[in-house]
Inverse folding.
């Protein structure tokens, strides 16, 4: 994708636009993939379109992506892996294991290790819940084993290289503050600081870091609340997506939540797992998928009203998202 972006930017007459083209290609691909995920979960076209726009245009991607280019590809690889998991609801074979292993293995080469664990972990947790709820037969889910081994085989050459390059370095994992200051900003356009106080420019709009579409966020959690209030044996797959979002939210609270301290103790991963706000892209994705599908269960008039409000909140968010972690004060 990087070379393709460079070629397009060069053809447009501005090689310095390589990163902008790189980001645009990923955001467009993300729209298509998230749309397919939402539709596969039963979301109607209007709320699926809202989710497909909200995820690539979330503050987690727009703001974090300005500072860390490796964050942008997560908006493509994670929904692609979730689509692979959803495919397990139907009969699969060796081709699924090879294709999914290829996705997960290549994903390791386009980011950094912490985000890769979040990529794969989000899809894996979603799959485990679908198995637990009876949407994926246990025997069919075993295809994930050869797929996972193939992914590791693709990732290991880079893992060995990184291990050798970092030999002798001391890592202190788990640092960084949680996202509790931005919880309201996930629902409505409230101002909020960066968890670590970052941002030499746009501090007053850093609340947009936490935003995507408040309607989808609220719908995801209301869907789980409705299921808890009336638990049924035939659990809809959207509940699994929303439950993953809730777990990710608890992890993103950092040391003030119940999950982050446990992650710090995980061997190998614990020492490199820092800054809980890096979970935000995966929270936006799973909550948007769960929320979009839950909106589809509402009467048509209510769904159209809430979806319209969701589009309005998203538009307001995108127009006002100007924050960045650092401003260099010049343009190339």
């Amino acid at each position: 994708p990087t070379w393709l972006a460079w070629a397009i930017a060069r053809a447009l007459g501005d090689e310095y636009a390589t990163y902008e083209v790189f980001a645009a290609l990923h955001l467009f691909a993300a729209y298509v993939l998230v749309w397919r995920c939402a539709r596969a979960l039963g979301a109607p076209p209007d709320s699926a379109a809202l989710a497909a726009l909200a995820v690539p245009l979330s503050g987690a991607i727009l703001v974090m992506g300005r500072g860390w280019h490796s964050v942008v590809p997560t908006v493509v690889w994670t929904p692609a892996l979730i689509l692979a998991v959803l495919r397990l609801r139907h009969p699969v074979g060796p081709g699924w294991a090879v294709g999914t292993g290829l996705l997960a293995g290549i994903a390791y080469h386009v980011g950094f290790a912490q985000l890769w664990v979040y990529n794969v972990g989000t899809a894996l947790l979603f799959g485990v819940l679908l198995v637990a709820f009876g949407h994926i037969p246990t025997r069919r889910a075993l295809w994930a084993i050869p797929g996972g081994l193939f992914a590791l085989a693709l990732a290991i050459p880079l893992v060995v290289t990184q291990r050798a390059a970092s030999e002798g370095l001391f890592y202190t994992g788990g640092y960084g503050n949680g996202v509790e200051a931005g919880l309201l900003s996930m629902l409505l356009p409230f101002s909020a600081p960066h968890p670590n106080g970052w941002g030499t420019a746009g501090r007053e709009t850093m609340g947009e870091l936490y935003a995507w579409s408040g309607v989808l966020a609220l719908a995801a959690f209301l869907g789980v609340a409705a299921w808890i209030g009336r638990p049924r044996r035939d659990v809809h797959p959207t509940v699994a997506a929303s439950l993953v979002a809730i777990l990710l939210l608890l992890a993103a609270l950092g040391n003030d939540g119940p999950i982050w301290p446990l992650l710090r103790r995980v061997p190998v991963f614990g020492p490199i797992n820092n800054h809980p706000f890096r979970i935000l892209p995966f929270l936006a994705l799973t909550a948007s998928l769960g929320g979009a599908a839950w909106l589809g269960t509402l009467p048509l008039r209510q769904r159209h009203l809430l979806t319209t409000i969701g589009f309005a909140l998203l538009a307001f968010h995108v127009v006002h998202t100007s924050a960045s972690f650092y401003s260099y004060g010049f343009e190339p």
